[in-house]
Amino acid sequence: MKNRLEEIRKDRGIRQEELALALGVSRQTIGSLENGRYNPSIILAFKIARYFGMQIEDIFIYEEEDG
């Protein structure tokens, strides 16, 4: 799954630390999400979307794997 989290966060002038604090996660979690090393739980995805006033689908892009 790809995401636009870093792009959206930077466009709004929000630091990773600020976002992490607002969501109740570590800065490392935000970094891992942005680098595609970690997929969020559905609850965290909803929290992120709500924080930015967006739909989950506007932030997280699901791509089906072949097979």
Automatic annotation (TrEMBL):
**Which residue ranges does the record assign to the HTH cro/C1-type domain?**
5-59
InterPro entries in the cross-refs: Cro/C1-type_HTH, Lambda_DNA-bd_dom_sf
Q: Which residues cross the membrane?
A: none
GO MF terms here are: DNA binding
**What's in the keyword line of the UniProt record?**
DNA-binding
State the Gene3D superfamilies in the record: lambda repressor-like DNA-binding domains (1.10.260.40)
- Cited SMART domains: HTH_XRE
Q: Give the matching PANTHER family.
A: DNA-BIDING PHAGE PROTEIN (PTHR46558:SF4), TRACRIPTIONAL REGULATORY PROTEIN-RELATED-RELATED (PTHR46558)
Q: What is this protein called?
A: Helix-turn-helix transcriptional regulator
What does the record give as the organism's lineage?
A: Bacteria, Bacillati, Bacillota, Clostridia, Eubacteriales
